[in-house]
Amino acid sequence: MRSATVTFRTSSGDVAVPADLGANLLEVAQQADVAIDAPCGGNGTCGKCRVRVLEGTLESEDALGLSPAAKAAGWYLACKSSIVGDVVVELSDAAAAWQTGLKVADVVGDDDQVWHDTVALLEMEGHWPDWEGDALLIELEPPSTEDTTSDLQRFSDALARTLGVDKPPLVPLGLARALPGLLRENDFKVLCLLRKTKYGPRLIALLPYDSLEVPYALACDIGTTGVSMILIDLMKGTVLASASAGNGQIRYGADIINRIIRQARPGGISRLREAIVDQTLNPLIEAVCKRAGVSSECISHMAIAGNTTMMHLLLGVEADPLRKEPFVPCFYDIEGLRAGDIGLTMPIFAPVYVAPSVGSYVGGDITAGLLPSGLWQSEELRLFVDLGTNGELVFGNNEFLMTCACSAGPAFEGGDIKNGMRAVDGAIEAAIIDAQTLDPHLTVIGGGKPTGICGSGLIDLVSELFRGGAIDGKGRFIAQGRRFSRDVHGIGSYTVAFAEETALGHEVVLTEVDLENFIRAKGAIFSAITVMLDATGFSVTDISRVIVAGGIGSGIDIGNAIAIGLFPDIAQDRYAYLGNTSLIGARAMAQSPRARAKVKEIASGMTYLELSNEPGYMDAFIAACFLPHTDASLFPSSRSA
Amino acid sequence: MRSATVTFRTSSGDVAVPADLGANLLEVAQQADVAIDAPCGGNGTCGKCRVRVLEGTLESEDALGLSPAAKAAGWYLACKSSIVGDVVVELSDAAAAWQTGLKVADVVGDDDQVWHDTVALLEMEGHWPDWEGDALLIELEPPSTEDTTSDLQRFSDALARTLGVDKPPLVPLGLARALPGLLRENDFKVLCLLRKTKYGPRLIALLPYDSLEVPYALACDIGTTGVSMILIDLMKGTVLASASAGNGQIRYGADIINRIIRQARPGGISRLREAIVDQTLNPLIEAVCKRAGVSSECISHMAIAGNTTMMHLLLGVEADPLRKEPFVPCFYDIEGLRAGDIGLTMPIFAPVYVAPSVGSYVGGDITAGLLPSGLWQSEELRLFVDLGTNGELVFGNNEFLMTCACSAGPAFEGGDIKNGMRAVDGAIEAAIIDAQTLDPHLTVIGGGKPTGICGSGLIDLVSELFRGGAIDGKGRFIAQGRRFSRDVHGIGSYTVAFAEETALGHEVVLTEVDLENFIRAKGAIFSAITVMLDATGFSVTDISRVIVAGGIGSGIDIGNAIAIGLFPDIAQDRYAYLGNTSLIGARAMAQSPRARAKVKEIASGMTYLELSNEPGYMDAFIAACFLPHTDASLFPSSRSA
Questions:
Q1: Residue B625 C-alpha, separation from nearest chain A C-alpha, in angstroms
Q2: Burial class of A593 by CB neighbour count within 10 A (0 to 12, 13 to 18, 19+)
Q3: Which residue, among A346, A271, A272, has the nearest Cα to A311 in the 3D structure?
Q4: B553 in the Ramachandran plot: left (φ > 0), alpha (ψ -120 to 50) or beta?
Q5: Is B153 on the interface with A (CB under 8 A)?
Q6: What ipTM was assigned to the predicted interfaces of this complex?
Q7: Does A478 touch chain B if contact means CB atoms closer than 8 Å?
Q8: Banded pLDDT at B39 (limits 50, 70, 90)
Q9: DSSP bridge pairs for B576
């Protein structure tokens, strides 16, 4: 088969790879580890995988996702293009914005109120604290002709004496290897890092006696769209560094169904695993360790929270049965995991704890995320809403917990939205629109020029435009003006920022396609809430508190979210946005075995409601796909206010 | 730096590699994984690393190890040659004979008398049997919309029920990964292979329900020169296949000192580890599994016996302190090893049990090897002699066990001998020499033409030539005839087989240099025996039984060994050659946890005698470096007989 060279011009330089003539360009990119977003999984509908030909040509099918104007400007959809010769392509700005750009945040320290509240909740039940690390200086008598005890025995005996135990902890081979050199270069004095377990202390690392390292742990939230990680000092119980990145699997599809389909193709299991392990988690581990100036060899363990599918893809376990009747996963909970099994760049025997799932679509991000929510301890009824790519709800109190999931799509995390992005620097996270001019006043994360819109910004824009009469209940633009236009297909759009106002060099817009996706997303959440309340025999007025979680962005305006019919129309002071509760729950699991036990207890007490089995769900969903709702009486405070 | 191409012509084809000009040829070969024997460690003295230039040239220093005749014929010593341009070289026959040629033996079955005797010995103490494997068919109810229990939970519950335990064995991630596919392709029926441990059953493998696999174990003896492995059916307790190969580390030196020096050089730890793991053990594992037609994924565990240095090199642990005052190893015993740590091609969590050492030069080959010897159970005094590259002795009974080691050199295994080889096909393992003509009658392993001489053949040749008056007490040829000659340096030699009688195309000879090495080896053993007896206050006549072990070859003639002063001159019927006792001990350790406990018990009860600290040792050694001994009264039955 003849072949050609395909060159991808990316922000980090050119990537040139050989490809067979006739090969699909998106697959060539995926093989070459060039991250091109393809949320629709290569159907030609989402338009996110577009590339521009700089040199050479591509052969391309027509597809819905590309406008004639874009086509005229030299854009192609990678998923619908095949290689006919040497070619140089650049990625679209959308693709660039979705690149898995890793962001290291400032040191969080211990000033996080949600974290302190979570610890307080756990302490009320005696579940906290449970300090897990130890650092011990061990001094040995050097060997002599009279005392030829082996290094390992000498060290183990001294460690057992220091710990006051009969049987010293096992020295794993990786540490035994370092022992002869370490002892002889450090006057037979070594620093041991230990992890406390119910089976007694376990060795994490052996270091020169004057080393300043302590035992560390990692906590991680693996979202379908974004991944966050923190590095914890186990001696002080504080966070040393945090970082986040896009989930490297995004190039294989924005939603879990497309990823499961991709995993089922030949080589898919390792592709998806590499995308999350090698291209996302390991760079994050490196980043937090570098930021904190610590060695990854001193990491004791890691706690991970993520949805059921993410956990299967992470561990290289076939997820295909999850999307097929009767939707049974390989595991809800799994124990005995070690970093080495997964391929994480940590000591190979470091335990990896994962938060248990309770259903195919209610995962460990929810069970861990419930820890800070307090639902499990509250006497009053509370509602927990996680606005991720999947929407998950939990309703209940200290007597029962009912949960369900709905497919909201990635709109709240910026996916399926033309200029959507995650809640990171450059994202419009809040907006106010002048009722007269319909010009927006934007708040951008990081303070610079905008590059896109994140979930909370979207809620504001839609709500303000709706309140200002620029959008009708079906999500169509009904206003005129310099910011409103229609393309050749008749699709209306609103210019949020003109080209000169953005960091992109072109405009940021909100289209009627975006509105449609967004309304479906909010309709899915709201209808799930009402159907679950119906199923339990309660109504919205019974809810004492609504806990909102997820990567939608801390700028979320509850009033606006109610005004568009995302959340029930109850008093705003009953709402609280707790941010990434999954990560906070994972942190508790990393710092306390008793928190891990509590998450398992919470998970085992939850009842899973399969929405698709509920007779009224489809009608409720359709009724909710309107601004604020087809039954306006449910939202007395909307618009009229 | 300019570079050239070096091509090695080997029996398995050409190996061409780039090399810098000025690079040392032996190092180039070692980097390229071309096995060239260098028992002297590159000093230019042993002459084993010679190569012949076929095309191009080499720049070479003069060295003792190469005769002018060999030089004239185009031979070079790789260790003393440097690259000056493109060159093609062929390896010497000696190098070829020492290649790590892997040999798969016929299935051993259960007809080995030494093995049955060992089991009987262990049974007398209640240490046997302890059957360790299990194979269970588990049938599951398929999942349904009503029963969405996860695959892992479903399987674990069924396994716990079948085993009658509350807490089912952990399913390692590697097996969990296979579960969804395995269940769905096999009507939710699977075969589980289990290992019994003191902590309860452990899962080894999950297989289709109609699979015929059972749990297997491996036992392995890692000698400095040769490595042997057997595959055991744990259900029946029988051997399914056996194989042996040269230790792939030979190219880094024939004795342990040279290997430790090589390990201490940059990159040495991984080089030495790769040579034994990737190039020796893994091919052996593949060979025995293939021979028996079984999957290496069903191997439950492995037991390894080897000397202290071999264990350090195998595990990638620095061995350098072993050769430096006060000669302290990193470990005598080490626990918690897993196949994955070592890099063995077996399930990564499969335990690897190693026989404990008792001294820097008395290793697990001896402690495991003592199991079949019965010393630990005998009321009468016994002497155990292991004739390896190091000679190790144990003397004692069920009340005490004293041990010592001496550096015999590799002569008994065919090393340091011009035409020496291991006891494999083509080796002369026995010889009778006509007292008149001084022509030999040879016995060759495998029955074909000879390619070299193994340990037992050497003993016969030296003894017969000495008895026939062709060699004097100092190891010099004093006879004339067509088989006797002297080279330009005056070194005498005896032609054992003329060129046309060998499989090599050139003659097999025994030289005065060989005799000198051999006499030093036998002198080291004999003097160690006498010094250790002195230290315990006993004499040779107190020995009720001498157990001879090691790779010297089953053809050993005890009368000849006594006649040359290797063994004490006591009645021949007190001697028994048990062969590779280290491998038999490892087999017992693989089949029974109680045998493993017994080996640890034996090791902890042994007293180590450091010969170099004994005042009379050096004199005793020098006195023993004579045929049969400078004190002829010690050998009344020799020659005069």
A1: 29
A2: middle
A3: A272
A4: left
A5: yes
A6: 0.83
A7: no
A8: low
A9: B547
Task: Quote the pLDDT of residue B639.
Answer: 53
Beta strands in A67-157 (DSSP E): 75-77, 81-91, 103-105, 133-139
Q: Is the Cβ pair B177, A334 closer than 8 Å?
A: no
Cβ A260 vs Cβ A319: under 8 Å: yes
Tell me which residue of B23, B312, B371, B177 sits closest to A180, measured CA to CA. B312
Q: Does A177 touch chain B (CB under 8 A)?
A: yes
pTM reported for the whole predicted model? 0.83
CA dihedral A416, A418, A419, A421 (to 10 degrees): 10
Arithmetic mean of pLDDT, A275-279: 95
pLDDT, average across residues B415-444: 90
- Asked whether the predicted pLDDT for residue B97 surpasses 70, the reply is no
Least confident range from A444-458, B113-127, B146-160: namely B113-127
H helices of A301-411, in order, are 308-315, 339-342, 364-373
Assess contact for A244 and A264: CB atoms under 8 A.
Answer: no
Contact at 8 Å (CB) between A219 and A586? yes
* CB < 8 Å from B in window 534-553 of A: none
Verify whether the Cβ–Cβ distance A334 to B181 is below 8 Å: no
pLDDT tens, position by position, A327-367: 899 999 999 999 998 999 999 889 999 999 998 889 999 99
How, if at all, do strands A200-208 and A352-354 pair? unpaired
Burial of B606 (0-12, 13-18, 19+ CB in 10 A): buried
| Bridge-based pairing state of the strands A75-77 and A50-60 | antiparallel
Q: Give the Cα separation of B467 and B638 in Å (integer).
A: 8
pLDDT in tens, B67-79: 776 777 778 888 8
B171, B331, B335 ranked by CB distance to A150: nearest: B331
From chain A, pick out residues whose CB is under 8 angstroms from the CB of B327: 148
Secondary structure E strands in B312-439: 352-354, 382-387, 391-396, 401-406, 427-433
The answer to whether B151 contacts A330, with C-beta atoms less than 8 Å apart, is: yes
